[in-house]
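Worked example

This section walks through a single chain of length 461. The input is the sequence exactly as stored; nothing has been trimmed or padded.
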Amino acid sequence: MGLHRQHDVRRLSSVKGISRTSQAVVFLCAVGIIVLSFSFYVSIHGSALSQPQEWQVHHWDDADYRYLAEHFFGVHHDFQTYGEEFAGRWGEYLTAVPFRDIGVGTAYLALKFFSGSSVDILFPLFMKIALGVCYLLFFAAIYKRYGSIMAVVSLSVLCFIFPQWELTNKLLPEPFLRLFFLLYFSMLLWSGRKRETFLLIGTFLFSLIIVQFKAQWMFYGGLILPAFVWINLRRRELKKACMVIVFIVLLPLSLSMVHWIGWGSLPAVSGTGLHALWRTKNANLTYACNHQLFRSALPRVCEKDIRFGSWSDFMHAQYPGQNLRQLSEDLDAASNRYYLTVPTELLRHFWEGMVLAAPFPDVSPSFDGIMQGIFWIVVAVLIGGLVYAKTSFLAWAGLSLWIVPAIGNMLATYDGRYHRPMAGIPIVIAFLIIVQLYPLLSSRIRNIFSMARTGKITVVY
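Given that input, the structure is written out below as tokens.
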């Protein structure tokens, strides 16, 4: 008897050893995929780090994020490190109006605090390492739930078709959003539906973080969190449902709190009127001028036909001493009123924003037709996944990745980088939904054929 027990123990230990070895091999394969993907990126760009002309934190959007974070935390502006417009009216405008969100600049200042002047080298390097780690965590989540083959295929799609390494060369929200989306869906796949409270708290914290990097993503929490309200209402758990509603309200309130502390401004989003200038081709400005929607004297751009090629030019075109915050608030309010007069335009821009996701970023234009076909297949799968309880939340989370940029396209001019943070993730989600529902669907299809042949109903469990 003792010999048999010893034999069983040895065999069990051998099986565990083989299992651990196979897991190690699978994860080494994942690391190899990530390294190979990065090697392709380096071979194309010629350098593992960003080129000097790519890392321009002193100009345009990158500089806006740094400037606003410095203002919020009371850090001195070194204007020698900024473009000349920041020492003029544009800098004055950013000091008066929270035009962008502080998440990106905060991350930059945090790393600069620890690394000093070498931040411009370390920041892109840190982002590339973080992206690789997030890919590995995403792989681990799929491996745990769906197995090695699904994990390898999914990681290959993300790393080779939509690698996004180039994103990490810019001080913009998109590379951070890429990291957060990978982490969130890793958590979603890891937890499943059984750990609902963990998933709820994770979804709220994820939503709370991403709105500090790009305000429009508060709509993502506004789309995802109501699912928890519905679940708790069906169970008649009113306290939990009310708690989720509080979570939803806290998303815009968190932005208002940041804006109040740093700028004394309450709106959750400011400067939408400037974005609308490009979206409406100045129609919102013409509407505001014609209806005299400015509280003080009409701005200079209303009185003369002044051309401006950037937001900075728009601010420099104003009269000296004009209250730029009041101008911005009036233009925002006028733009909101203008949008109410063109509902069909808003719907057209929303649909346009959805379709613009079809030729996925970083894919050669020669493959546009193929990618558009894949896009519609993915949309159909995600919509179909909403019907089944076991895949409904995952499907809705994937669809919302395209809905939020479509909402943004209604109010601001589209830029290809807006779809880069989530590029490829909906495809992987659709793939996982197909695999998860295949046994159920195949059983029902066999049942239908069986009914057609025999005329009898077969119950599928």
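What to look for: The chain has a mean pLDDT of 84.
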